[in-house]
């Protein structure tokens, strides 16, 4: 097992009817800016319930954070924070609203051009860069990204999507009430299942380092998502299925699965370019890229792919190659069983677009990806070709 530090200060408040917990977990007397996305939280009455839970605190609102939160939109919220001396940010929504709020938190104290915060890539921003950040709470409405219990965010700027990681942006608390997700459209639920699944595989399908606990946790998350995936999509008010979905998504990216093991975020990095260039939903880009990446990188990932085949998919007969083939096929079939397309061609993206995608990867510095740092643009091109 590799050396690691594990730190996660987020207080999780899980279950039905927990909004009243906002009051005792938000600093008394704080000026609160509620942030949210396209308006469903407002129309459903959730924002009003959150405001009621905040009691007599002075409350401001900022809506309109996009599904892929844009820098320009978030900087408008930064102005509100500065002008109104906001003490606390409360994100109501899914990963995009929470990610955007994390960036607002950091940018509100940064003294220079806030776009500088997008230049760190997958490296963690040292806390001294901003000195401090506006504290954050969250009310989760879309289980997918795990942003409610980590310090990461992905921000859209220009023609790219940029990771922002800083320990100052761990939420102080997150309300995880599965019933708040019951009204989600089926495709968003499916996307969320896939996002959690791929977060897990990117910390699991690498190479063995004898991280036995981490492997078992990852395998448990993957098996649970496989068990409840179709149910939570087709039966939106099935509390048991949705509760497991919510908790899987949180556990997949709160740091516990990836502690002390190699990680490979190539699927996400390549997928981000598909979203930036073609507007394909994030979860659907992962469903396109992961099976293709596993095929192209099967030799590099052989030991863990065999473990995945045997432990997750219960494939215990046949040759090693046959086991790997079947595990990759079952992965693709699982995504498709959720109603998600897994081929670029099904999204109208032809092979002639691949060179431009590869050039974007180069432009964004994504030239040495994977757990071993040897996934070059040429290999990314092979993955995209295999994804056709």
UniProtKB/TrEMBL annotation:
InterPro entries with a match to the protein in the record: ADH_Fe/GldA, ADH_Fe_C, ADH_Fe_CS, BDH-like
Gene Ontology terms for molecular function: alcohol dehydrogenase (NADP+) activity; butanol dehydrogenase (NAD+) activity; metal ion binding; methylglyoxal reductase (NADPH) (acetol producing) activity
A Pfam family it matches: Fe-ADH
Domain Fe-containing alcohol dehydrogenase-like C-terminal: 190-360
Organism lineage string: Bacteria, Candidatus Walliibacteriota
Matching SUPFAM superfamilies: Dehydroquinate synthase-like
Cellular component GO terms held in the UniProt record: cytosol
Protein name: Aldehyde reductase
Organism: Candidatus Wallbacteria bacterium GWC2_49_35
The Alcohol dehydrogenase iron-type/glycerol dehydrogenase GldA domain, residue ranges: 9-178
Keyword line: Oxidoreductase
């Amino acid at each position: 097992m590799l050396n690691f530090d594990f730190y996660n200060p987020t207080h999780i408040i899980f279950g039905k009817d927990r909004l009243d917990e906002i009051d005792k977990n938000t600093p008394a007397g704080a000026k609160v800016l509620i942030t949210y996305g396209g308006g469903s939280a407002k129309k459903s009455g959730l924002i009003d319930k959150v405001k009621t839970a905040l009691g007599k605190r002075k409350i401001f609102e900022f809506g309109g954070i996009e599904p892929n939160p844009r820098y320009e939109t978030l900087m408008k919220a930064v102005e509100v924070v500065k002008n109104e001396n906001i003490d606390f940010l409360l994100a109501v929504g899914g990963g995009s609203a929470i990610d955007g709020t994390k960036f607002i938190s950091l940018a509100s104290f940064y003294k220079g051009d806030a776009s500088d915060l997008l230049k760190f890539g997958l490296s963690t921003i040292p806390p001294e860069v901003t000195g401090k950040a506006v504290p954050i709470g969250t009310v989760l409405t879309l289980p997918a990204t795990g942003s409610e219990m980590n310090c990461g965010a992905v921000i859209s700027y220009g023609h790219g999507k940029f990771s922002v990681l800083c320990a100052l942006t761990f939420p102080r608390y997150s309300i995880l009430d599965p019933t708040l997700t019951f009204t989600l459209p089926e495709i968003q639920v499916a996307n969320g299942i896939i996002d959690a699944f791929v977060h897990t595989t990117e910390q699991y399908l690498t190479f063995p380092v004898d991280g036995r606990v981490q492997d078992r946790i990852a395998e448990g998350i993957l098996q649970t998502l496989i068990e409840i995936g179709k149910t939570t999509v087709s039966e939106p008010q099935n509390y048991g299925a949705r509760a497991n979905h919510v908790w899987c998504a949180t556990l997949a990216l709160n740091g516990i699965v990836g502690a002390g093991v190699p990680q490979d975020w190539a699927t996400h990095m390549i997928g981000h370019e598909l979203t930036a260039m073609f507007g394909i939903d994030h979860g659907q880009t992962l469903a396109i890229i992961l099976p293709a990446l596993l095929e192209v990188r099967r030799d590099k990932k052989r030991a863990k792919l065999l473990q995945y085949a045997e432990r997750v998919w219960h494939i215990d007969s046949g040759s090693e190659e046959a086991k790997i083939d079947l595990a990759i096929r079952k992965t693709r079939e699982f995504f498709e069983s959720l109603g998600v397309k897994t081929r670029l061609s099904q999204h109208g993206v032809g092979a002639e677009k691949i060179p431009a995608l590869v050039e974007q990867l180069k432009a964004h510095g994504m030239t040495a990806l994977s757990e071993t740092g040897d996934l070059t643009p040429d290999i990314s091109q092979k993955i995209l070709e295999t994804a056709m």
